From TrEMBL:
<protein>
    <submittedName>
        <fullName>EbgC protein</fullName>
    </submittedName>
</protein>
<dbReference type="InterPro" id="IPR037012">
    <property type="entry name" value="NanQ/TabA/YiaL_sf"/>
</dbReference>
<dbReference type="GO" id="GO:0005829">
    <property type="term" value="C:cytosol"/>
</dbReference>
<dbReference type="Pfam" id="PF04074">
    <property type="entry name" value="DUF386"/>
</dbReference>
<dbReference type="InterPro" id="IPR004375">
    <property type="entry name" value="NanQ/TabA/YiaL"/>
</dbReference>
Length: 151
């Protein structure tokens, strides 16, 4: 897992070629004209989802993980809390779904952190995560979630 500011995104180039493409795309994209929902990065297998929502209380949070994609979760506007836990310390709730690259988990962790506007978190397949949580009370969040294949 990586947490950092948008200005430092290039620091993480070199980890994975697809991550390089996604980070460079993020650095150069126009954040003022985004279409809600799923958007593809041309000539790649990388896509991003533009979301607008209200953050939720911890009791409504859900642990999740992925196997084929890593997530870059970038906060455009607002602020949210996210949780982290190694997937080996979590218990799967259902079978992994390869079509959606999603698995939900149960478990506990004390690893929660705040991701303010202009910052991002990168979650790798070994990183269970719980995004979308309120910091002190529910607030509006605008976020990009890049889905980056790790092959």
């Amino acid at each position: 897992m990586i947490i950092d500011n948008y200005r430092n995104a290039k620091t993480y180039c070199g980890i994975n070629p697809n991550l390089d493409i996604a980070l460079n795309y993020l650095i150069n994209m126009d954040l003022n004209n985004l279409a809600l929902g799923k958007n593809e990065i041309p000539d790649t297998d990388i896509f991003y989802i533009y979301q607008e929502y209200s953050s939720k209380p911890l009791k409504e949070g859900k642990w999740e993980g992925h196997r084929k994609y890593l997530d870059i979760q970038y906060i455009i506007d607002g602020c949210e809390k996210m949780g982290y836990c190694p997937i080996n310390d979590l218990t799967p709730l259902k079978e992994y779904n390869p079509d959606t690259d999603f698995i939900s988990f149960s478990g506990k962790s004390n690893n929660f952190f705040i991701v303010p506007q202009g910052n991002f978190a990168i979650f790798f397949p070994e990183d269970g995560h719980m995004p979308g949580l309120e910091v002190t009370e529910s607030s509006s969040v605008k976020k990009l979630v890049f889905k980056v294949p790790i092959y």
